[in-house]
């Protein structure tokens, strides 16, 4: 298929408007994060074939935190499939999700994971290999905005965590390197898919920082363009937690279907589907079978390095805290 046709189809999927809340009895609404759309486009027919009584599954995609806020403000989701625990905890605080949501499903309600990697243009003309290369003069970066996007937060935490490791835990040196990286950011987009669209359609940037599954999907979609996925030596593990929105599911009478929908994510067919969509499956057997598709990367869990997600949000992403300070300084001549 010609690149222009693939590009048009890809961009159309990136710009699909969010679905309206379902009427009672019309099926399920899954409110999800930005770069999960390709997996769920394949998973939903799999689920509906096995559970025809559940009805149609509708999707809403966007930056993870924006999606959580939309649900908190009334978007009638039966389930949420997000990429940051704090986004689900927001719904707990609003009384929409039960406090024990992480115990309701296996693996602390995380069916698959990803990690933050790079996409570069054909031939990797800037020779980008690791995080330190993103701080060099003359490198232009596209990424999602950490203020509204889970993928953006993971990108920032990965960059800062790698800088801390490189500098032996020296916070001042790590912050200086991360500030130089932020000075090279040409565009902060609202979500992971929007960042990809900017990199491809607008041809801005030398490197796109995003989730592994998104970037491998992009490279497959445009083989003629010669995009290359680059794996840094050290990065952050991206979890994708899921939960039933109890207040909605109980009100609409969809709890049984909602629980079946999420439990289905741990079945072998769904885990294999996740692997084929470049998401790292939780099932050890499936993970082993697809090991060749997932280069080994030393990763860290953000909540193990920087404290709980509540603490991370307060230290790094609340107004006036570390991300804001470094980004503002990076824009100051």
Automatic annotation (TrEMBL):
Q: Extract the InterPro entries matched here.
A: Thiosulph/SO4-bd (IPR005669)
One cellular-component annotation, GO = periplasmic space
Gene3D superfamilies per record: Periplasmic binding protein-like II (3.40.190.10)
Q: Which GO terms describe its biological process?
A: sulfate transmembrane transport
**Protein name (record):** Sulfate ABC transporter substrate-binding protein
- Per the record, the domain of life is Bacteria
Q: Which family does it belong to?
A: Belongs to the prokaryotic sulfate-binding protein family.
According to the UniProt entry, the coiled-coil residues are none
Q: Where is the signal peptide?
A: 1-20
**One MF annotation (Gene Ontology) recorded for this entry:** molecular carrier activity
Which CDD domains does its entry note? PBP2_CysP
Keywords from the UniProt entry: Periplasm, Signal, Transport
As for subcellular location, the record says: Periplasm
């Amino acid at each position: 298929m010609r690149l222009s046709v693939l590009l048009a189809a890809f961009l159309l999927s990136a710009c699909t408007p969010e679905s309206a809340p379902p009427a009672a009895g019309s099926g399920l609404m899954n409110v999800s994060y930005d770069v999960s759309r390709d997996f769920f486009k394949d998973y939903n027919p799999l689920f509906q074939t096995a559970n025809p009584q559940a009805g149609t599954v509708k999707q809403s995609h966007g930056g993870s935190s924006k999606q959580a806020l939309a649900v908190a403000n009334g978007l009638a989701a039966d389930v949420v499939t997000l990429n940051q625990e704090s986004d689900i905890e927001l719904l707990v605080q609003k009384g929409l999700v039960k406090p024990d949501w992480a115990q309701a499903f296996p693996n602390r309600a995380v069916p698959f994971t990803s990690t933050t990697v790079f996409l570069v243009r054909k031939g990797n003309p800037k020779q980008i290999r690791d995080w330190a290369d993103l701080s060099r003069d003359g490198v232009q970066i596209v990424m999602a905005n950490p203020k509204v996007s889970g993928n953006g937060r993971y990108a920032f935490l990965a960059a800062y965590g790698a800088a801390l490791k490189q500098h032996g835990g020296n916070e001042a040196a790590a912050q200086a390197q991360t500030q130089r990286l932020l000075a090279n950011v040409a565009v902060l987009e609202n979500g992971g898919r929007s960042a990809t669209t900017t990199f491809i359609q607008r041809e801005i940037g030398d490197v796109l920082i995003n989730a592994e599954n998104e970037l491998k999907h992009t490279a497959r979609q445009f083989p003629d363009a010669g995009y290359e996925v680059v794996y840094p030596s050290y990065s952050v593990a991206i979890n994708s937690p899921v939960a039933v929105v109890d207040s909605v599911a109980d009100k609409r009478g969809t709890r049984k279907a909602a629980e079946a929908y999420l439990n289905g994510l741990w079945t072998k067919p769904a885990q294999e589907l996740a692997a084929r969509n470049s998401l790292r499956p939780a099932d050890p057997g499936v993970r082993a079978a697809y090991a060749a598709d997932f280069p080994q990367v030393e990763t860290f869990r953000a909540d193990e390095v920087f404290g709980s997600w509540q603490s991370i949000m307060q230290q790094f992403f609340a107004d006036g805290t570390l991300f804001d300070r470094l980004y503002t300084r990076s824009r100051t001549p």
